[in-house]
């Protein structure tokens, strides 16, 4: 009930122009426990958009960049410190920054989301993880192709 209300509010607020934005708003509405997998779903929607034949126009590109940055902030806020897990995707390295609290979470997300047939492996990381540090440094992602 509550969640439906918030979804309606968010839709109104941000005026969802592109289909993938629904997944991004889902991620922000998710509970802390389900946020990591929701973020992953949102990223997969974004990644799927990026590999489509039709290139995003300038407005959509800005929206994509915005969404990726917001998701990075969200995942940093929801992640507990210490041991965590990354999914290393073979073909879409820009998604590697995402972290999971447990290996089971990472496996579950990877299994569900490896729908385009990418290979992946789960990596265990500790405090001072280089990948998370790189993420913190990267302010935006290169969305232009070619
Ligand atoms: Zn990490």
In what range is the share of β-strand residues? Answer: 5-15%
Give the fraction of residues assigned to helices.
40-55%
The number of helices is 6
Number of domains: 1
Secondary-structure content class = mainly alpha
The distinct ligands, each listed once, are:
zinc ion
Output the helix-strand order: HHHHEEHEH
In whole angstroms, the N-to-C terminal distance is: 45 Å
Query: Order of strands across the widest beta sheet?
Result: 2-1-3
Mean pLDDT: 77
Number of strands: 3
> What gyration radius follows from the Cα positions, in whole Å?
15 Å
3D shape: globular
**Unreliably modeled segments:** none
Largest sheet: 3 strands, antiparallel
Name the features:
6 helices; 146 residues; binds zinc ion; 10% strand; mainly alpha
Task: Explain the overall architecture.
By secondary structure, this protein is mainly alpha-helical. It has one domain. The chain contains 6 helices and 3 strands; from the N terminus they run ααααββαβα. The chain has a 3-stranded antiparallel sheet with strand order 2-1-3. Helix 3 runs antiparallel to helix 4. The longest helix has 21 residues. It is globular and about 40 Å long. The termini are far apart. The model has no long low-confidence stretch (mean pLDDT 77). The structure holds zinc ion. The site of zinc ion has 7 residues, from strand 1 and helix 6.
How do the strands and helices of this protein lay out in sequence?
Layout: H1 2-14, H2 21-29, H3 35-50, H4 58-78, E1 84-89, E2 99-100, H5 103-113, E3 120-125, H6 130-137
Antiparallel strand pairs: 1-2, 1-3
The chain binds zinc ion.
């Amino acid at each position: 009930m509550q969640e439906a209300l918030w979804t309606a509010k968010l839709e109104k607020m941000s005026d969802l122009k592109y289909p993938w934005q629904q997944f991004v708003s889902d991620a922000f509405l998710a509970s802390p426990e389900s946020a990591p997998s929701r973020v992953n779903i949102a990223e997969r929607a974004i990644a799927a958009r990026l590999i489509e034949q039709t290139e995003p126009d300038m407005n959509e590109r800005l929206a994509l960049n915005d969404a990726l940055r917001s998701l990075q902030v969200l995942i940093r806020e929801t992640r507990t410190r210490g041991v965590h897990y990354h999914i290393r995707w073979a073909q879409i390295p820009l998604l590697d920054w995402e972290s999971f609290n447990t290996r089971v979470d990472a496996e579950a997300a990877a299994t569900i989301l490896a729908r385009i047939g990418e290979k992946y492996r789960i990596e265990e990381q500790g405090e001072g993880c280089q990948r998370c540090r790189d993420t913190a440094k990267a302010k935006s992602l290169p969305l232009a192709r070619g």
